[in-house]
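G.,

No rush on this.
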Amino acid sequence: MEYLYAFLGGLLCKVYDDLNDNSMIGGHSQEILKGSQWILLTLLSYNDFNFALFDFIANGLNALNNWEEWNHPYETSLLWLTPLFLLISFSSRSMLSVYDIIYIIVWFTTMYLEPLFVTEESSKRKLYLRILGSINAAISILIGLYFGISTSCIKISFYCLGYCLFSSGFQAYLLTRSPIA
């Protein structure tokens, strides 16, 4: 069930992000998506300290190179409140394997560098990068399951898969809707 929560969390995170950035949703829909994000992050983090820690660090790294997108009340609240997940789940912390560490280093690097490569709201390049992200997330899930990478890391891959799949579809929609390069 946690993998489903992770997939939905990533998907709904991107639904909120894309629809909000393009002024396609208002009041109630925004609050439903924000609330669902908190519910899903709580479910994913409650008994998984490593996931909560990885999520917090990755979002912090992304915010360093993408502060314009993070400097809004809801987004900033994520950075301030997610440390609560660390306190709540502290008793569930576990040792990382070498594979986990390699996976996390790659993911942290990606989260830190991604804002430098994806600066536009919509483009063919962004579409291709998000399709590539979807493929990478799916491959990461398969490799993770095969090599016994921790559930925390596999949940991150499912979250990324939901995020990138919706983003790919939304980019395709934007590109067919209007003439954007």
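When you get to it, here's the other one too:
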Amino acid sequence: MKKYIPVISTPNANELVVEVYYSLGGTNLFTYKTDPRGYYLSVSPFKRGETSMMYVLGSGAKILILPCNRRSNKREALAIELAKSKEADLIQNVLHKNNLRLDNNEEGKQVI
């Protein structure tokens, strides 16, 4: 599940992307720590241009919401439900970290 939330435009961002995804885990090449396998919720600001999308490294955040060994439709549905309760806090964290504000004139667009 992925959705886009508009923010007031800055040089580095004009939207947030909120995504629930499955990760195989393993060694994180940026932190050199081992990430567990499972479903994650991530929020990242990005700048959408006419022909490109730009992310700023380290500007987003992610949390493990459902550790599991295998990907399945049932677990994915559960992870999406669990993500709903944590989504608002993670969005506020990323907004504060990057000095961004939501653009209340537009609704979020959801892509599955």
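The first strand starts at residue 2 and ends at 6. The mean pLDDT is 89.

Enjoy the weekend,
O.
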